[in-house]
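Figure 6 in text form: structure in, sequence out.
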């Protein structure tokens, strides 16, 4: 979903992402998927999505991996999902984590990572980075 820019030059209020997240969860279940990875996780409120709660409550995934650079965010995810044993919350840099992940990913939810951050990760250009390993699917944000 694109966020519209008004005549005043500022982003206009946008709809909550709840509907698209629920639809993603429904499709995930429909094709009997197993593994979700969310890069840039966290519990940032309904306007941001609180995606991890949708994955935990509405999918039948047997593995939901929440990755975030920020220890505080990961602590919040752990607290919010403590009743879901299928959720793993991991402090890591997202691109590096994906590069080392060798199992199948059925749903990859990527919060945009600033280009400057990608460049800081190494000598390769962002477009050459292994963001989407073979066989990976992704949703395009909200
Ligand atoms: C807009 S918030 C994500 C909102 C969240 N997914 C939700 O549903 O509420 C962006 C998050 O991405 C994390 N982040 C930014 N760059 C990252 C990176 N390279 N690897 C992992 N996490 C990253 C930030 O620490 C922050 O918690």
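Output sequence:
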């Amino acid at each position: 979903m694109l966020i519209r820019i008004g005549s005043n030059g500022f982003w206009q209020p946008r709809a909550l992402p709840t509907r698209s997240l629920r639809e993603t969860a429904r499709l995930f279940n429909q094709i009997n998927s197993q593994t979700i990875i969310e890069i840039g996780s966290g519990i940032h409120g309904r306007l941001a999505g609180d995606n991890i709660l949708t994955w935990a409550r509405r999918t039948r995934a047997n593995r939901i991996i929440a990755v975030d650079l920020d220890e505080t965010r990961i602590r919040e995810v752990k607290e919010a999902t403590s009743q879901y044993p299928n959720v793993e919350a991991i402090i890591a840099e997202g691109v590096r984590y994906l590069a080392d992940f060798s199992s199948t990913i059925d749903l990859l939810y990527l919060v945009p990572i600033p280009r400057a951050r990608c460049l800081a990760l190494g000598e390769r250009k962002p477009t050459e980075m292994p963001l989407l390993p073979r066989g990976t699917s992704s949703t395009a944000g909200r």
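Caption detail: DSSP finds five helices and five strands in the chain.
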